[in-house]
Design brief:
Shape: elongated
Number of strands: 9
CATH topology of one domain: Rossmann fold
CATH superfamily of one domain: P-loop containing nucleotide triphosphate hydrolases
CATH class of one domain: Alpha Beta
Number of helices: 14
Largest sheet: 5 strands, parallel
Length: about 350
C-alpha cells in the first residue's frame, strides 16, 4: 500500500534545514570553541615581521602637549593641500624627499622616519621616479594612505631615493627640475659622507652583487682615467660630474663622490631654505642633536622616545655574512691620494652650502 500522507512543502523543508544547521552550529560552539586550548598559543614575540610597519599612535595620544605646536599646523596644511581621494582610495604627495647620497645613511634615516606617528610609508624605498622611465606614470599612486587611517588628517609621507643626487640628469632633463615641476613646495634632505669612505663603502657594496668589478686599485685607476678623458672632451666640468651616459659614468664610483656640481644643479630649482644637508658622520655620532634640527627644518614634532640607533638596517651585513664576502679597505697611500683628489671639490661645496667648517679631515 502507498503512504497517502502529504509530502512536506518546499517552505517546510527549507525551515527544517535551517533549524538543523543552526542546531549543529550551536553544538559545535559549545563542544569545541568553548573548550580550553590543548596547545600553547604563540605570542607576538614569536614572530618577526617581514615588512617593517610604521608605529601609528592612537588618536587619544595625539592630544599630548608635544603635538600642540605650529608643526602640527604645518602637517595639517600639507595634508589638506596635497592629499586627495579617488576610487575610494586616499593618496598624499610626499612632504619631503631624502635625495641621497648612496651609502651615506639614507636607509637608516628612512627607517627612522617610518617610526614617526605622523608618517606613513610609501610603497617602497628607492622609487627613483624622477630619474627613470617611469616618470610618465602616476607618481602619487606610490603613496596610498592605509585604509584604516584614511580619516586621519594629521598624516604625511616621504620619499627616499638616494640616486637622485648621483643621477641628477636623465636624458638631458634635470631630476630636480622634474621634482620642482611635480611638487614645487616639497622639502629636500641630503646626507653626505666623507667622499673617500663613501667610495669605499660603495665598492664593498658592489661586491655583494658582483658585476665584473675590478680589483680596488684597478677600479680607482679606471674611474680616474674615465674622468680625465671626459675632461679632455667636455668644456663644462659639471657634465663630467653628473651621470654621463656617453662615458658610462653609471659605474664610476669615484665620480659619485664628487658632490659639488650635483648641488649647483639642484639650487637652480630649489632655494637653500627648502634644502637641508647633513654630514653623515655627525648624524651617527650625535643623532639626537642632528635629528632635532632636522625636525625643526621639516616643521614636524620631534619624538624623543624613538631611538635612531635601534632602527639601523642590518640587511647588508647579513647578506655579506651569508655570502662570506670580505670587506676591502684602502691602503694609507690610496686614502691619502683620494683625500687630496676630493679636497678641492669639498672646499667648493663648503662655500656653496655655507658650512661653518670643513667637515672631513682624512
Amino acid at each position: 500500500m502507498f503512504d497517502k500522507r502529504k509530502k512536506p512543502s518546499l517552505k517546510s523543508q527549507i525551515t527544517l534545514g535551517a533549524v538543523i544547521c543552526l542546531t549543529l552550529l550551536v553544538a559545535y560552539y559549545y563542544f569545541y570553541m568553548s573548550r580550553p586550548p590543548t596547545h600553547i598559543e604563540p605570542t607576538k614575540e614569536d614572530f618577526t615581521p617581514k615588512v617593517k610597519k610604521p608605529i601609528i599612535k592612537k588618536s587619544s595620544e595625539l592630544s599630548s602637549p608635544r603635538y600642540n605646536s605650529s608643526s602640527m599646523k604645518s602637517i595639517l596644511r600639507w595634508h589638506k593641500k596635497h592629499c586627495r581621494t579617488f576610487k575610494k582610495k586616499k593618496y598624499c604627495d610626499p612632504y619631503f624627499i631624502i635625495i641621497g647620497a648612496p651609502k651615506c645613511g639614507t636607509t637608516s634615516l628612512f627607517d627612522y622616519f617610518l617610526s614617526h606617528p605622523n608618517i606613513f610609508p610609501p610603497v617602497t624605498k628607492e622609487l627613483n621616479f624622477f630619474n627613470s622611465f617611469n616618470y610618465s606614470k602616476d607618481y602619487i599612486e606610490n603613496f596610498e594612505v592605509p585604509s584604516d587611517l584614511k580619516k586621519r588628517k594629521d598624516l604625511i609621507t616621504l620619499e627616499a631615493s638616494a640616486n637622485y643626487i648621483i643621477n641628477a640628469h636623465t636624458s638631458n632633463i634635470s631630476v630636480y627640475e622634474r621634482i620642482a615641476n611635480g611638487i614645487p613646495d616639497v622639502k629636500l634632505v641630503a646626507l653626505l659622507r666623507n667622499p673617500v669612505d663613501r667610495f669605499m663603502s660603495h665598492y664593498n657594496y658592489r661586491l655583494i652583487y658582483p658585476r665584473n668589478l675590478p680589483e680596488l686599485s684597478e677600479k680607482i685607476e679606471l674611474d680616474l682615467a674615465q674622468l680625465k678623458e671626459c675632461y679632455s672632451q667636455k668644456k663644462d666640468r659639471a657634465s663630467c660630474h653628473l651621470t654621463n651616459k656617453e662615458f658610462n659614468f653609471d659605474q664610476n664610483l669615484v665620480v659619485k663622490s664628487i658632490y659639488i656640481d650635483k648641488f649647483r644643479g639642484l639650487l637652480k630649482y630649489f632655494p637653500k631654505e627648502r634644502l637641508r644637508v647633513y654630514i653623515s658622520e655627525k648624524l651617527f655620532a650625535n643623532s639626537t642633536s642632528v635629528l632635532r634640527d632636522l625636525h625643526e627644518f621639516l616643521d614636524i614634532p620631534f619624538i624623543e622616545s624613538i631611538d635612531f640607533n635601534k632602527v639601523l638596517p642590518k640587511i647588508e651585513v647579513r647578506k655579506r655574512l651569508e655570502k662570506n664576502i670580505t670587506k676591502y679597505s684602502l691602503s694609507p697611500s690610496q686614502r691619502s691620494f683620494l683625500c687630496s683628489f676630493y679636497r678641492p671639490f669639498n672646499e667648493e661645496l663648503v662655500e656653496l652650502l655655507g658650512f661653518k667648517e670643513y667637515p672631513w679631515n682624512c
